[in-house]
Design a protein that fits this description.
single chain, about 100 residues, alpha+beta, Alpha-Beta Plaits, 4-stranded antiparallel beta sheet, 3 helices, 4 strands, about 45% helix
């Protein structure tokens, strides 16, 4: 497999009301990975090769794990060999299309 974007969400359950500490631990793993990444209110998206991305997802789950009884992982991947810079490139193409359609 080649380059990919992975959007994922990881959260423990059995923690009570807040999962913010667990999510912070998972996002810290992502940011320390050095991969291109973006976190929003719902998902964290990373870009890289299959093995390095899956390793980050696995380590993020492990970081969240101690904060609850179990971990929930939601993952969506866009596997596109030979492409790089898609984390921002896809959004730039979308914005250009919106701008072009406004004229």
């Amino acid at each position: 497999m080649g380059a990919m974007l992975i959007a994922f969400s990881v959260a423990p359950s059995g923690t009570g009301d807040s999962v913010s500490q667990a999510v912070a631990a998972a996002v810290r793993v992502v940011r320390e990975s050095g991969l291109p990444q973006h976190t929003d209110a719902m998902f964290t998206t990373i870009e890289g090769e299959w093995d390095e991305c899956m390793d980050v997802v696995k380590r993020a789950c492990a970081a969240a794990g101690p904060h609850g009884e179990r971990v929930s992982l939601v993952l969506k991947a866009d596997i596109r060999p030979g492409r790089a810079g898609e984390l921002t490139g896809k959004v730039e193409r979308l914005e250009a299309a919106i701008e072009a359609s406004a004229h």
